[in-house]
Amino acid sequence: MTSQDKSAESKLTIANDKLASSKPTSDPKLPEECRPQPGSDFYAASVELPVSIDEAFAYHERPGCLNRLTPPWESVQLEHSDQSLQPGSRVVLKTKIAGIPVRWKARHVWYDRPHGFADVQDSGPFARWSHQHRFESIDDDRSQLTDAIEYKLPAGMAGKMFGSGKARRTIEAMFAYRHRVTKDDLQMLVDYPMSPKTIAVSGASGLVGGSLCTLLTLLGHKVLTITRDEHGDEDSIAAWGSPPEMEKFESVDAVVHLAGKSIAGKRWTPEVKQQIRDSRVEKTRSLCEGLAGLQSKPPVLICASATGIYGDRGDEILTETSAHGDDFLADVAGEWEDSCQPARDAGIRVVHTRFGIVLSPQGGALQQMLLPAKMMGGRLGSGNQWWSWIALDDVLGAIIHCIHREEVSGPVNFVSPNPIQNQDFAKVLGDVLKRPALFPAPAFALRLALGEMADDLLLASTRAVPEQLQQTGYKFRFTDLKDCLRSLLGKERKPAPQATE
């Protein structure tokens, strides 16, 4: 154990001892549901946050916090929420335990802003679950969050005997993830001090767009979704609808345009390729022409693009100034970026986010790789092709960076500083999952199954680096692939002692 690990464990031990020594029963403000019961297990973990106690509490109180902090490896769906922490408000989650669907119904029972709130399980996978979220002020600019859970497993002593280890590991992984995300999110308030802004986002139902809308809301901004409907409402803009709808952009501080037909959804027939092109090029050009014609224009447009613009380049290191490739994806990405010219000509700052492989178990490439990896799948083709990857949270953080930093414009590679060859990616993923990467997928088999898509998406080598992000001071959450995958797949845990009542 390193000295850093010992220090972290010591801090958590102190936090647990402190909580154990001042049990909820000594606090008259806490309701009966939060009082410890004999035979319960107790877990607590703390994290220091880089913001005041009021800002830390406000983050947890805003809509979407539960979704944001739900671990991405868990099969959990928010079925209902009153969007409140007030006593009596309820949340219903749908999850699976050993493949069996389960509804987890919880109720908030204590609220003392900004010092804490608590919820209890009414029905669900535990025999008992009581969760206290406690906030303490360290100084004007720092605070501490402590999550304290008292829980009982079902089936009495048998459940405790056979399930306590698994339950403990699950809880540890969950709060390691939650605390990392909470701390990193709130650090953005320090790194990017902005007054609350109104930000319009297209592609809000997608992996990146949906996550971005949630994070922007949690950081105190107002989000308007851009839709393809004929009419919008107070929370949306029908950008390709009537002129009055387009005028809504005059009250917007930034536009983030992420919409486009999935390039991995279907085999690339001529019809599908035309749909991919039109959904990006034509729609973007129409949007930019509309923005250019406004009396009061949004200061910045962040428009999606892709590292596919470079094509298959072997071992060449690719920066934002590298030449474009000559395959289908390179052509589409090039036209996509060119379609923003009307906005640029109108004086709008335009940023092209050239996405690499965005990693999240909830969608995209990683979601598709998990099952083969668990079955000991290995490299694709030769495995020598370079993959430029980036964690989903770094995509979100880099978008906010581009909104805030006025010197950022033009193409920006949205990739981690450390691209990796496919054969090494497969090995790292296998190590995290504790599976050897034994069985390669031959190139001819991939081409037979996917056609042209196999060459452009899986076998092409793109060794891109984030020169623009690094030069303008973006701090990556993840630069090491193994660290990233461990966090995303629930393989990291905080060491924290457990107390049993």
TrEMBL record:
InterPro entries: COQ10_START, DUF1731, Epimerase_deHydtase, NAD(P)-bd_dom_sf, SDR39U1, START-like_dom_sf. Residues 50-174 form the Coenzyme Q-binding protein COQ10 START domain. Residues 441-488 form the DUF1731 domain. It comes from the Bacteria. Transmembrane segments: none annotated. Signal peptide: none annotated. Pfam families: DUF1731 (PF08338), Epimerase (PF01370), Polyketide_cyc (PF03364). Residues 199-405 form the NAD-dependent epimerase/dehydratase domain. CDD domains: SDR_a8, SRPBCC_3. Residues 1-39 are annotated as: Disordered. NCBIfam families: yfcH. Belongs to the ribosome association toxin RatA family. Belongs to the NAD(P)-dependent epimerase/dehydratase family. SDR39U1 subfamily. This is TIGR01777 family protein. It comes from Rhodopirellula bahusiensis.
